[in-house]
Amino acid sequence: MTNDTSGFLALLDNASSGALERGRDLADHGWVSLGSVSDGVVQARVQGTVVYRVALTAGDNGSWSCDCAAAADGSFCKYGVAVVAAPEAQVLVRHLP
After folding, report:
1. pTM value?
2. d(CA 62, CA 58)
3. Whether the predicted pLDDT of 15 surpasses 60
4. Tens digits of per-residue pLDDT, 36-81?
5. What was the pLDDT predicted at 9?
6. Which class for 8: exposed (0-12), middle (13-18), buried (19 or more C-beta within 10 A)?
7. pLDDT at 6 exceeding the cut of 70
8. Rg (CA), the chain
9. How far apart are CA 84 and CA 87, in angstroms?
10. Strand order of the sheet with strand 32-38?
């Protein structure tokens, strides 16, 4: 189990500069709703033009999924960035047992 955000922060290395900027903006405006945070996995919904489902897995080979069009080719999208950047996600992940 992870008890810090470093495994999730490393996922940001996979995002384009545009996705980083737009994702942080989504997080700053409170568009992220966490579904669950456990055992190095975060599941959330992010409000865009529709609600997108995002799942992130921390670790050396961290992974992600999102049902938006930008992530269809495996790109780390702005919705994934938003989940990593969301203050509530960072607080919850830090306090995992």
Report:
1. 0.84
2. 5
3. yes
4. 877 788 899 999 999 999 999 987 778 999 999 999 998 999 999 9
5. 82
6. buried
7. no
8. 12
9. 8
10. 32-38, 41-47, 51-57, 63-66
